[in-house]
Recover the amino acids of this structure.
């Protein structure tokens, strides 16, 4: 039976035992963050916030380091407060609202993800069915995994910009080609994963190439596809954010990070960073959720 | 070499020579508008090229034929890129011909070399070594602390879904515009894959072997050195290879966020905004070659270090 039922009957104590170390780790990270904020902000606080005559106690110092205007490292609660106030303090279509930027980035990521996945699927089916493509093209696609393909992003922006495309299209194209490589490589592997005996059985049923693809190869490839999709959507998100960097971009998490660093607004950078981490986690867990639904009847993970 | 092989190789060579001859035509360097005859020759050459690639791909036997197909395909792609871009006079901003990119690499070699030193030899190499080394050290250190492992591992796995490179603006703020800030981003990006892989590798030794070590009364450190670390090598090399690409991406993208007036990422972003595309492509070629060479070097080292492992012996 599926893993979901097993997970459901797992006793609560087991779950606690698994969650406790993670919770402790998170607490340690939080404590280290506070300690770091105190240590890194102390020099600036002594210089700028506290009275110059030295008439301050360590409590004053602690208080000052936790509430700096432009801290070297903002304390977690400052980030949380900025994060929250940007969510509720402004209308959703205002550029001061983080959700607005999330929507912009997520839109191009998702477009790119869908296009890149489709392209990868089509190409991998072609590669599996054509010896020429397999030998001529696949080595280059595999080799491209060792190359920083994200570096091409500025070129894509210039090319599409001079062709008159702007807005979501160039960003989606960059996210697309970043998704495309892992999906293609994994799908070629997956479509080839059925064993000889299974393909021979399809052959004895006089199944056509399309039937063999649809009934045997594609289902067999799914366990290979989903890990690649998780990698792909994470890569696509990075691509979309990098595409928002060039000057002129005003919307999106990448642009938000850049404006934050232009104006030295550290709290804004950190809340944008937290938001992009959350977006990455959300996108990947949506893919993981789809994976669990699609593969729920498989006994093996 | 049998008859089919000979005929196929001859066809491939003949079409390559035909390609060279067509390159000598004045239209191929846009000195003359292309005549119908030139178009006919081009189409014929394209058909020949496709045919020769298909024939070479169909060859059985030696493994060299597979790489030959890929190489032939690459050469023809470059060839038609050059030919068509020149003949159609595609604007340089859209797509410069390969010859122009090569020229630009040659004439800007001192600049690109400086960028290479700045980005690869400083930020990438130091960041990669530090990040991977730290990941390895932490993994070995918490090897005997299952509580820490269970706490760290889920978090470390999650980091692969987070755009870690976005910490670049903060790194710039903390460590300045020079390479230490890029190296810091690279350290952060390479640390977690190495940690996760090393932890997985340390669990990879077989039960039989571990029991054998136990029956020898081998100490913990002896077992670690003689059995578990060697068994973890393939995992660690896997992470080192992934990290090499990640480190290049991290350093280049971090330079998009702000950098001194040197570095591959800086070159790519500034020259792209100045529409000097041949140099942008040149910088990308340098980055791509660096990535491939780093990967190849790591594969060679792995073959030397883990020569006994089935995954190495098979290939």
């Amino acid at each position: 039976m599926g893993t979901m039922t097993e997970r459901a009957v797992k006793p609560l104590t087991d779950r606690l035992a698994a969650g406790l170390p993670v919770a402790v780790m998170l607490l340690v990270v939080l404590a280290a963050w506070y300690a770091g904020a105190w240590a890194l902000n102390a020099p600036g606080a002594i210089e700028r916030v506290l009275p110059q005559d030295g008439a301050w106690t360590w409590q004053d110092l602690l208080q000052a380091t936790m509430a700096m205007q432009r801290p070297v490292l903002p304390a977690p609660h400052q980030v949380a407060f900025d994060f929250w106030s940007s969510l509720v303090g402004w209308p959703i279509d205002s550029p001061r609202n983080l959700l607005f930027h999330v929507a912009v980035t997520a839109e191009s990521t998702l477009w790119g993800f869908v296009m890149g996945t489709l392209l990868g699927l089509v190409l991998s089916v072609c590669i599996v069915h054509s010896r020429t493509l397999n030998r001529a093209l696949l080595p280059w696609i595999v080799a491209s995994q060792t190359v920083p393909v994200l570096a091409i992003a500025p070129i894509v922006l210039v090319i599409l910009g001079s062709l008159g495309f702007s807005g979501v299209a160039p960003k989606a194209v960059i996210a697309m080609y970043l998704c495309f490589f892992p999906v293609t490589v994994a799908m070629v592997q997956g479509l080839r994963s059925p064993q000889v005996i299974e393909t021979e059985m399809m052959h004895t049923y006089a199944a056509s190439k399309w039937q063999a693809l649809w009934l045997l190869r594609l289902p067999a490839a799914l366990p290979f596809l989903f890990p690649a999709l998780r990698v792909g959507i994470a890569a696509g998100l990075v691509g979309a954010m990098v595409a928002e960097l060039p000057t002129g971009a005003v919307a999106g998490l990448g642009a938000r990070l850049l404006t934050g660093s232009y104006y030295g607004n550290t709290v804004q950078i950190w809340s944008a960073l937290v938001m992009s981490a959350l977006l990455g986690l959300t996108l990947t867990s949506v893919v993981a959720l789809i994976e669990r639904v699609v593969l729920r009847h498989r006994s093996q993970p | 070499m049998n008859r089919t092989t000979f005929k196929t190789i001859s066809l491939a060579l003949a079409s390559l020579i035909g390609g060279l001859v067509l390159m000598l035509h004045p239209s191929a360097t846009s000195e003359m508008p292309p005549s119908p005859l030139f178009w006919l020759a081009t189409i014929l050459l394209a058909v020949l090229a496709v045919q020769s690639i298909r024939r070479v791909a169909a060859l059985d036997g030696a493994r060299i034929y597979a790489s030959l197909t890929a190489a032939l395909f690459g050469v023809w792609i470059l060839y038609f890129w050059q030919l068509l871009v020149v003949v159609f006079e595609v604007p340089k901003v859209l797509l410069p011909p390969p010859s122009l990119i090569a020229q630009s690499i040659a004439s800007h070699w001192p600049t690109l070399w400086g960028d290479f030193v700045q980005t690869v030899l400083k930020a990438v190499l130091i960041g990669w070594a530090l990040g991977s080394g730290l990941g390895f050290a932490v993994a070995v250190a918490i090897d005997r602390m299952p509580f820490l492992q269970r706490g760290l591992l889920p978090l470390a796995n999650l980091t692969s879904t987070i755009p870690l490179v976005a910490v670049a603006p903060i790194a710039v703020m903390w460590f300045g515009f020079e390479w230490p800030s890029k190296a810091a981003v690279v350290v952060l990006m390479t640390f977690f894959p190495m940690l996760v892989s090393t932890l997985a590798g340390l669990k990879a030794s077989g039960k039989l072997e571990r029991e054998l070590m136990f029956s020898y009364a081998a100490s913990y450190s002896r077992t670690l050195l003689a059995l578990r670390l060697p068994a973890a090598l393939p995992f660690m090399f896997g992470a080192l290879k992934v990290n090499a690409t990640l480190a290049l991406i991290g350093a280049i993208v971090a330079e998009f966020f702000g950098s001194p007036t040197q570095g591959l990422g800086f070159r790519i972003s500034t020259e792209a905004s100045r529409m000097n595309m041949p140099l942008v492509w040149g910088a990308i070629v340098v980055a791509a070659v660096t990535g491939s060479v780093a990967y190849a070097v790591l594969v060679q080292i792995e073959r030397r270090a883990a020569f006994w492992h089935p995954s190495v012996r098979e290939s």
